[in-house]
């Protein structure tokens, strides 16, 4: 792929045209190492477990602080 020449814009910043931008995006996406299906399932499960644990912690804190507020001001 040839080097792209930036197009100067009115505000002094360098810009590339849309076709060159698209080619650069496609070239970068080809460099990406995509996860296998097993890795993807593992990542999904780990993420869901983490989210459920954090939700439980936040819910318990909310319940505790709510009851404490009612005990103090109730």
UniProtKB/TrEMBL annotation:
Q: Which InterPro entries match?
A: SecE_bac (IPR005807), SecE_sf (IPR038379), Translocase_SecE/Sec61-g (IPR001901)
Look up the domain of life of the source.
Bacteria
Q: Where in the cell is it found?
A: Cell membrane; Membrane
What is the predominant subcellular site recorded for this chain? Answer: membrane
UniProt membrane topology term: Single-pass membrane protein
Membrane-spanning segments:
40-61
Which UniProt keywords are present, listed alphabetically?
Cell membrane, Membrane, Protein transport, Translocation, Transmembrane, Transmembrane helix, Transport
Transferase as a keyword?
A: no
The record describes its quaternary structure and partners as: Component of the Sec protein translocase complex. Heterotrimer consisting of SecY, SecE and SecG subunits. The heterotrimers can form oligomers, although 1 heterotrimer is thought to be able to translocate proteins. Interacts with the ribosome. Interacts with SecDF, and other proteins may be involved. Interacts with SecA.
Q: Which HAMAP family match?
A: SecE (MF_00422)
Membership in a protein family: Belongs to the SecE/SEC61-gamma family.
Q: What does this protein do?
A: Essential subunit of the Sec protein translocation channel SecYEG. Clamps together the 2 halves of SecY. May contact the channel plug during translocation.
For this entry, the protein name equals Protein translocase subunit SecE
Instruction: Please name the source species.
Output: Nocardioides massiliensis
């Amino acid at each position: 792929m040839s080097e792209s020449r930036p197009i100067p814009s009115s505000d002094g910043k360098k810009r590339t045209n849309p076709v060159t931008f698209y080619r650069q995006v496609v070239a970068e996406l080809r460099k990406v190492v995509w996860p296998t299906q097993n890795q993807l399932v593992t990542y999904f499960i780990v993420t869901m477990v983490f989210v459920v644990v954090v939700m439980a912690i936040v819910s318990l804190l909310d319940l505790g602080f709510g009851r404490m507020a009612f005990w103090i001001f109730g």
